[in-house]
Amino acid sequence: MKAVVLLSGGLDSSTVLYRARADGWDCYTLAFDYHQRHRCELRAAAQIAEAAGVCEHRVVTFDLRSWGGSALTDDAIAVPEARSLDQMSASIPVTYVPARNTIFLSFALGYAEAVGAQCVFLGVNALDYSGYPDCRPDYINAMRAVYRLGTRQGREGEAIAIAAPLIDFKKTEIVRLGNELGVPWELTWSCYKGGDVACGVCDSCRLRLAAFAELGLRDPVLYATE
Predict the structure, then answer these.
(1) DSSP-based three-state secondary structure for 19
(2) Which of 6, 31, 107, 175 is geometrically suited to a Cys-Cys bond with 122, CB 3.0 to 4.6 A?
């Protein structure tokens, strides 16, 4: 069984990769260099793919900075810092990248059909307080219809599936599962900023640190706030 796994190098996508591998899938990982602020995540993705022993790791390059619209693709928009969980969940944050998962899943669909994969895995999480519209169950279900209707494989055979195994998981549950699967947390990168070390104050860092702390664990990643 072949699977394409969207691998950002972060906590969620790395856990999904190790979950797919544990379930017996031959994994082909796909990362994206869209000129994001935190391009250092690409190094993390490559290291995790190597550690997991994937069949193939590819990086697709395109430039979403050409129109911006997100704190991750426009340096004029500040990455939010030191926000509470209530503040994070109040509205869709400026770190939302317009249509990012639709773009990613489109590339993944083409890659999957080309290599004969049966499934695309991604690490979206609807309980992550971010409120991103393209991380929710109704969106994933809509993209399943696109996969069925928009490919030869979907029209003439069995459609390529989309698996989002973490979509209903709390962050603590993801960390617990990753521990069970042996995810090398020290190789992962979740920070939205592009520094040499994780900032510790952006939404992504704070959610990650809170999950480790709630479980009584120390995150092995180095943070600027330490």
Answers:
(1) helix
(2) 6
